[in-house]
Amino acid sequence: MKINNFLTLILLTISFSQNAFLDDLNTVSFDASVQPNNIRAGESIQLKLDVSIERKFHIYSVHPDLSLSPTNIEYADSNFFSVVGIINEPTPKTSYDENFDMVIAYLDGNFELTQGLVINQELEPGEYEIEAVFSYLACDETKCIPHWDDFSFPISIESGESREDHTLIPTSEYTVATYLEVDDSATDMGSLDEAINEGLFSFLLLAFSMGLLALLTPCVFPMIPITVSYFTKQGEDDGSSPVRDAGIYALGIIVIFTGLGLILAFTLGATGANQLASSPWMNIFIASLFVIFAFSLFGHFELQLPASLRQFSLNQESKGGVLGILFMAFTFTITSFTCTVQFVGLLLVAASNGSILWPVIGMLAFATTFAMPFFFLALFPQYLARLPKSGGWLNSVKVIMGFLELGAAMKFISNVDLVWQWGIFTNQVVLAVWVVLSFMMGFYLLGKIKLPHDSDLDRIGVPRLMLSIVTLTFGLYLSGGLFGQQLHGLIDSYLPPIVDSSRENIVISPSEESLIWVDNLADGLTIAKAEQKPIFVDFTGYTCTNCRWMEMNVFEDIRVVKKFEEFITVRLFTDGGDNYKENRQMEVDRFGTAALPFYVILSPDNKEITRFHGMDPNVNKFLEFLEKGTEQF
Fold first, then answer.
1. Which residues contact 251 (CB under 8 A, 6 or more apart)?
2. Residue 544: burial class (beta carbons within 10 Å; 0-12, 13-18, 19+)
């Protein structure tokens, strides 16, 4: 096996000579330092390399049995000191390489390499400059570049006898089994790689199925009323074509979802889409858009593009319609990014690491499935608007949609409140607004509220009466939540989480009040070591609707609450609060995903035990995940 690898490495090295000009690429940079600075002969020091690797590239592990070309440090003169153990590296990422029939381990991003050195007992006091070579193989998906980077570091030797208490910082002795444990835990990326290896059909089937599952998440629901209301108005224009407009909308969602997601991944990293969707300014924009559409549906004004845009073409109506539809597709994309499902999260990580083909195919297939129901949702109201005598009741439909859009706007403005911590649009305030809107819809349907384009009602039809009963009853149901009554988990998932008066703690539900949620992984590890418990880590977001859904429907299940008592529970927000940038990057760098929510169980010594793929309404699956975490601990 090792002979085959050696021969292959020779062939690779020969091929590298054809691309010698690539050696000038600054793919890897590092700084060398030693601790402590002043030592005596016979004492120990630690050499540290702070390594930074360009996105898309990686270097191999120091372990010879898990590397095509092990990373190494070679010293010009070993008479100054002796090396203790192998190089100490962080837990690497692993993958199975079919070409070499072996598991390989590699490192990327920013990390530290350390090595212990014992100063020679015979070394005279004085200043010494140690010459060394950092050798590694820098690879991306298309090529590998061998490097032998010269560097030096100073050591200062004091006179005197060596001190017994001057001990070396421990150096880890890694084994193959250590790395294979990491490989077994990476189930999500493994399933993606497995689908790719099985061929295009298998990969497309996975993408389509993930798109169908994403349609069941609460994140897409706010776009339903705005889609229906927009295309209801669109259908009233004489020059509009329902099939064309719905097709442009669906195609716009597919292209913008794919293109914007990948561009953000290439420029801002795997979490770029989440960063944009959770941005307070973007949430203000979406909330404002919903409010403007609501006022337009109420008949306060007519929405029109500026004259300068309408004059781009003689066919002003057609151009204006297309621009407006694409604008709605852009809004749909931003809204859906607030909850990046696991499949998309893996694709964005792959794209941020330099892969292009499979992320493009996966995003296109996923977005196509995601957009298809909204093609019919855009088509149906346009044909309704063309029915004879549709004026009176159709206007009532638009007004009801306007009320729904005001309710949806509160969801996005509360996101801004949570990130910027205004303390104004709280759980109770948003719920109170929804109660008022529900009652107003009921009174409107009964004819007690009249807006500019409404016709006079001589009598109330049965459908209108029944709908008013539904909305008034729903308003009464919501009002119970203002007085402590437990609401359905789907409703609670759209409400902002309850924040205590100090604004330092999130109380998701009454059944979680007994749990202590730690907001820092380092603190969680300290507690876990003291209590010898596994750690449950919840990567979540203030603006993540799917996260709220899991917390209100799964976390509060009595069986889950009881099981949580066996863990140290850690909640890491990725879009606001303290250390959110570090939390967000940790999810990508260590766990290889940008999905929200994301759950992982760690041992007290910070090794991954198992992970859960995100939102899933099946409580039993989540319980199996928790059970696996305690069994393997």
1. 371
2. buried
Per-residue pLDDT at 225 exceeds 90: no
Alpha-carbon distance of 277 to 55, in angstroms, equals 23
Q: What is the DSSP string of 395-452?
A: HHHHHHHHHHHHHHHHHHHHHHHHHHT-SSS-HHHHHHHHHHHHHHHHHHHTTSS--T
Tell me: pLDDT of 317 over 50: no
Which pLDDT score, from 0 to 100, does residue 433 have? 93
Report angle CA 522, 528, 533 to the nearest 5 degrees. Answer: 145
Instruction: Say if pTM beats, i.e. exceeds, 0.70.
Output: no
The rounded distance, in Å, linking the Cα atoms of 474 and 160 is 83
CATH code 2.60.40.1250 region(s) in the chain: 2-182
Beta bridge partners of 602: 535, 608
- Angstrom distance (rounded) from CA 296 to CA 458: 26
Q: What is the DSSP string of 224-267?
A: HHHHHHHHHHHHTSTT--HHHHHHHHHHHHHHHHHHHHHHHHHH
Report which secondary-structure segment, H or E, holds 5: helix 2-16
| Exposure letters 22-58 (e unless 16+ CB within 10 A, then b) | eeeeebbebebebeeeebbbbbbbbbbbebebbebbb
CB 557 within 8 A of CB 619: yes
Q: Which of 12-16, 226-230, 295-299 has the lowest mean pLDDT?
A: 12-16
The CATH number that domain 2-182 falls under is 2.60.40.1250
Cα-based angle 322, 325, 330 (whole degrees, multiple of 5): 125
**Sequence-separated (6 or more) residues with CB below 8 Å from residue 184:** none
- The per-residue pLDDT for range 136-195, each reduced to its tens digit, is 988 877 778 888 899 998 888 888 877 765 555 444 444 444 444 433 334 444 455 666
CB 599 within 8 A of CB 625: yes
State how far the Cα of 291 lies from the Cα of 287, in Å rounded to an integer.
6
Peptide bond into 597 cis (omega under 30): yes
Separation CA 327–CA 325 (nearest Å): 5
The span from the CA of 407 to the CA of 435, in Å, is 10
Cα–Cα nearest to 45, from 148, 136, 159, 130: 130
Give the whole-angstrom CA distance, residue 465 versus residue 467: 5
**Strand (E) or helix (H) holding 392:** helix 391-420
CA distances in angstroms from 560 to 187, 392, 555, 618, listed in the order given: 23, 51, 6, 12
**What does the alpha-carbon distance between residue 501 and residue 421 come to, in Å, rounded to a whole number?**
11
End-to-end CA distance of the chain: 34
Q: In whole angstroms, give the CA distance from residue 616 to residue 610.
A: 16
User: Per the structure block, which two tokens stand in for 407?
Assistant: 């309710």
Alpha helices in 92-220 (DSSP H): 176-185, 187-197, 200-214
Whose structure tokens read 């990969």? Answer: 203
Asked if CATH classification 3.40.30.10 holds for the domain at 508-631, the reply, yes or no, is yes
Distance CA 502, CA 281 (A): 25
pLDDT of residue 190: 47
Mean pLDDT on 241-256: 86
What is the phi-psi region of residue 147: left when phi exceeds 0, alpha when psi lies from -120 to 50, beta otherwise? beta
CATH 3.40.30.10 intervals, the chain: 508-631
Residue-by-residue DSSP string for 279-299:
-HHHHHHHHHHHHHHHHHHTT
